[in-house]
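Two quick folds needed for the group meeting slides. Do the first one here.
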Amino acid sequence: MTVPTPAPASPLRLFYIDDSGANTTGYITYSWIEVTPAGWNTGLKAWLNLRKALYATYKIPPSTELHTTKLIGGRMNPSTDPAVNASKALRRNVTQDALRVIGATPELRIGTVYRQTQARGRAYSAERDAVYVKLVDHLDTRLGLAGEHGMIFMDGDGTDPGYLAAHRDLKITSRRIIEDPIFQASHHSQWMQMADVVAWSTYQSLLRHPGKRFAWHWYAQHLQAIDINGGPLRQ
């Protein structure tokens, strides 16, 4: 019996995805940070070195979740130093330090797809599902053109059925995104925390809320150079 020769393996790309936006603004964004398995160790090491530096400078323990909305909004006390927790400027510095590390790590790339809609309530939720479908299609097409495969890791607990459906609607004979989305809680995943700061900063660059003027240009300063698409893609 002749054993078939296995097809040559194609490169694999890992996508860590977080969503942002709000029903009240009509924005829906999905941002990701991507890395190959070969660059995974170096990418994570750069982030863990940042966490050590944040502890040395701001007394923020490496085990503390960096949740950008709460950090910037003062809705968490990440530091063991009350002076850091009480300072808007220092909390903003923490976020920019994180963005600098992401932007300066050669193994990392980022990207975003987004939509602004007038839909609200349940209709807004349906739009969110539709944008996620666009995201999956975009990544699957890109991987196919590059001769690669990919896996998606999502922030969350997996209870939203829309994410699963988007993957299973891909054609099995040609799909490049393998498996269903893999869900990880951000407080357990440094990669999800990296995706969170990318998602928040990119969203602020699109929304341009007057109260967040200080963050309008963070994406351009720190992330645009490593955006795989050159900028957020409107869907």
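Then this one, please, same format:
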Amino acid sequence: MAKIDYPLKQILEIKKKRVEDAEKVVSEKRQLLEKEQKVLEQKKADRDKAKQHRVDKLEQLRSELDHATTSPKVQQMKVYLKICDEKLKIEEKKVKDQQDRVDAAEKELEEAKNLLKIKRQEVDKLMMHREGWEKEKRKEIELGEEKESDELGNVIYGMHHRKNENL
């Protein structure tokens, strides 16, 4: 039987290449997301450290107030506490910004996954078409060979029949 050459073979190869490219993009997006999540964890740790520092200084101020410390020292501690509050706000903003980056990276990853799914479906459809096309082509070839065989048989029969009549 002759080798059947699928006419959409090049298109199938191109679509397979696109699937491979989409898989690479998904992998890159996944790595980017993991990196952003690690940065987020670090920023949360920094924020928690600043929050704990503020709590410690607040407790220190309360302790000083209980011991009836001088007014300038209390004022100095209140000013430092305000500085701690500002630092905490900055750290909270950093965490929020990083969380936005993580959310954006998650969204990009989902979009890349959806695109990959679509590209895989295109390849699957083309593969199913190829299988159906190849079955149909084989049937056509078999029918052609059968017809050719029948014609050859008829010719041989006719030759034998004429030969026998001539004798």
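Slide caption for protein two: The chain has a mean pLDDT of 89.
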